[in-house]
Amino acid sequence: MPSLKDLKNRIASVKATQKITKAMKMVAAAKLRRAQEAAEAARPYSERMGAVLDNIVHAISDSDDAPLLMTGTGQDKVHLLVVCSAERGLCGGFNSQIARFARDHARRLLAEGKTVKIFTVGKKGYDILRREFASLIVERKELRDVKRVGFENADSIGKRLIEMFEAGEFDVCTLFYSEFKSVISQVPTALQLIPASPAATAPVVDAEHANAVYEYEPDAASILADLIPRNMSVQIFRALLENVAGEMGAKMSAMDNATRNAGEMINKLTLSYNRQRQAQITKELIEIISGAEAL
Predict the structure, then answer these.
(1) Which family does it belong to (predicted)?
(2) What is the pLDDT, as a whole number, of residue 190?
(3) What strands, in cross-sheet order, belong to the sheet with 115-121?
(4) pLDDT greater than 50 at residue 192
(5) CATH says 4-21+258-290 is which class?
(6) Residues with catalytic annotation?
(7) d(CA 155, CA 239)
(8) Which of 1, 184, 265, 278 sits a CA distance of 20 to 30 A from 289?
(9) E strand or H helix at 137, and its extent?
(10) How far apart are CA 242 and CA 28, in angstroms?
(11) Where are the domains of the chain?
(12) pTM
């Protein structure tokens, strides 16, 4: 049984931890609002970008001038998984959910005889996936020094993916991230980037505009050559913003639970301390009374 001094030190230690978790919860709550607003503001743009791309793809689907980023290499042998995760922990199961989703997808592809390569964005995703797929990780990118994620960060990732595709390093590219729903709900999501799959992000078109005819200047192929790389960067940017909002929401929830658990532990330790102290006082009184009676 721990001594009174040990219990007192333990209570002081848990109280110090509780102060830290409470402060982290408040910081996450302050950052969450800004991150949530940024993620929600990026959704309409990325969805409309997907809708525009979808219209052009349908117009050029039967043409031989379609860029490779849209049509792909015609093969389905080498898959590149771009896994976006957080740079830091202490956010519950946020990172493990994304990594598990990507890991299950990789296992399924490997079981089908496909070649899998992994591109990690974020330190925690790399740390989790390297335990099983260290040999499959071909590149990693960390944004630990970036205080606020900007479009230039996503654009650099998008350009690197295009370079790898043009070098023939993969046939299909899929982006993994966590879509922010609420503070307690972040949904792991997979989005195919190459070949371009705008239907996954394009909003439903109403019947009035469903049969609209568009004319493209200079031509649809030239527009696609510029639009598809830009759409890739936009979708990656949205994924990074969704991840930031999800991370802050998960961290806020995790730190709130940790603060409550610390409070419960303090109550239990205080009760044990008081009981042991009372028992020790009672024992000393009995010894004094027994000694007095003996005299």
Answers:
(1) Belongs to the ATPase gamma chain family.
(2) 92
(3) 137-141, 115-121, 78-84, 172-182, 185-194
(4) yes
(5) mainly alpha
(6) 91
(7) 12
(8) 1
(9) strand 137-141
(10) 15
(11) 4-21+258-290, 24-254
(12) 0.81
